[in-house]
Amino acid sequence: MDGIVLKVRKNSKVINKTIYISVGLRKGGYTEMLGMWLGENESAAYRITVLTDMKASGVEDILITAIDNLNGFTQTIRAAFPESSTQICVVHQIRNSCRYVVWKDKKVFTQDMRDIYAGPTR
């Protein structure tokens, strides 16, 4: 689950809009687009609308969610799907970690991170 912020023109002004995307992975490895929603901005408050809409469209349960760690998002998911486990998306984890690495070391650092998350064992 993630939101993509796009710049769009509305009444001769350029404003931000967020497209919320939710993709599911079914048992057996099949992916399924659960939906796309257009919102004003990326916020946990709007995401409860997305989760409620997903429930209304037939999603019974979510076992694991991979999210961008937006403030309040884990609690929002648990409000709609109490049994769900949450983890931060690997891409977002690396981006957040790179904030603390000087520019000249980022290439080596990201390669080291890849070795960690692609490792065959814990």
SSE layout and pairing:
Elements: E1 2-10, E2 13-25, E3 31-39, H1 44-56, E4 64-67, H2 73-80, E5 85-88, H3 90-98, H4 106-117
Parallel strand pairs: 4-5
Antiparallel strand pairs: 1-2, 2-3
Helix pairs in contact: 1-2
Q: Your description of this structure?
A:
The chain is α+β, with helices and mostly antiparallel strands. The chain has a domain of 61 residues. It has 4 helices and 5 strands, in the order βββαβαβαα. The strands form 2 sheets. Strands 1-2-3 form a 3-stranded antiparallel beta sheet, covered by helices on one side. The protein has a two-stranded parallel ribbon with strand order 4-5. Helix 1 packs parallel to helix 2. The radius of gyration is 17 Å and the shape is globular. The mean pLDDT is 85.
